[in-house]
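Question (not urgent): is this output format expected?
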Amino acid sequence: MSEASRLTGVALAVLALLVASGCATDNGDSDTDTGSDGLPGLPAMSLTELEPSCDMFLEEQLRDFFGYVEWSYPPVESPYGSGTSPSAITCEGTVVWPEFELSSGRTNAAEASLFTYLWPLEPVDEASKTFQARVEFMVDYDEGQGRTEFFAEESPEGAWDQANLYAHGDDHDWYLLFLQQDDFVLEISFRHEQDPGERRADLSQGAAAGEWSVFDFDRESASQFLIEDYMPAVHENFLTLLDRTE
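Got this back:
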């Protein structure tokens, strides 16, 4: 894992812990706590009984679009109550694209960090508060880093209660997706380096810098995919897991 990816992971973990602690409430044993009362299907807390996996977050759909080929190391799949964000179910790690040849016998590969969080919460208004806190915290954090925003959709249309997607760039492009439905909040972070083909040659193709590309997507198509395809699909997947689909 590159130093940049490692630092990104540390930053996200710290932010998740801070926001989780700030949003936590003491529900105690009161019978008046409504929890997920009135919702169809199962409460989001039932997801904590499942084996955590990247499949929950439809990671394969991200792989198919972005074109990375594998995890650099097996992803860390953490159940609720453990890992760097104990209030969430998580999948996180570094993904890589096919290698290219920098010089004779010397190869490299583009990398991205992928972090996914599912926060099961009760009562329902706690999920709404957590959604707002996550979005505001990350936006404030990014503004402090001096990054340039290139896409923002504060209320994309969909069957969810609230959603937000924004993206910014520096030496990496970073897409952040947030979604709240009833008693759970979903957060996806995907951060990839700039296309190596813009500044490096690939001897295996006989291509000079600027004459080839690692990525088959650009900022516009990636943002469109996340809003129009991925967000509805992963939202539907969690509703299916909770038996809330018709």
